[in-house]
Amino acid sequence: MRKFIPILGLVLTILWMLLIFYFSSKTSNEVDAEKIGLLRFVVNIFHGDKFNTYSELKKQQILNDYSFYLSKTAHFIEYGILCFFCYLMLIHLKKYRINYIISLVICIFYAISDEYHQTFSSGRTPRVEDVIIDSIGALTMLVIIELIMTIVFIVKVGKKHD
Length: 162
Prior knowledge:
mainly alpha
């Protein structure tokens, strides 16, 4: 079973990277079209029927704000997931927490390459802020993993793990 986890991690990492690559290949119009349904869902949660009573200017401002936060949240989550898969792939490299460092480095370099890749898609531009958000998402996942590992170890053995 221990040998299966890194292989599974490798497969999931590659598949997730391909999915990110696919999303980066979309034009800005395609991305906006896909976002509309999710935006309406989010707006309905926070504003309900009141949204229809707002002026067109206020509606547009709300949609723009939610679109921004939705986009940045997606970056954060997708790179958190990528980092988890990288961690699984490197789970056997425990000395000096090298698996954490390599997982984070992989995610940061992939985020940079992802932003560069977007330059080839119509209407898309690379953003340093997206690389930062991606990196924070990956780092957050590593903190969550470490917290879970520490809690499991404390419960199992009764002290903090190395």
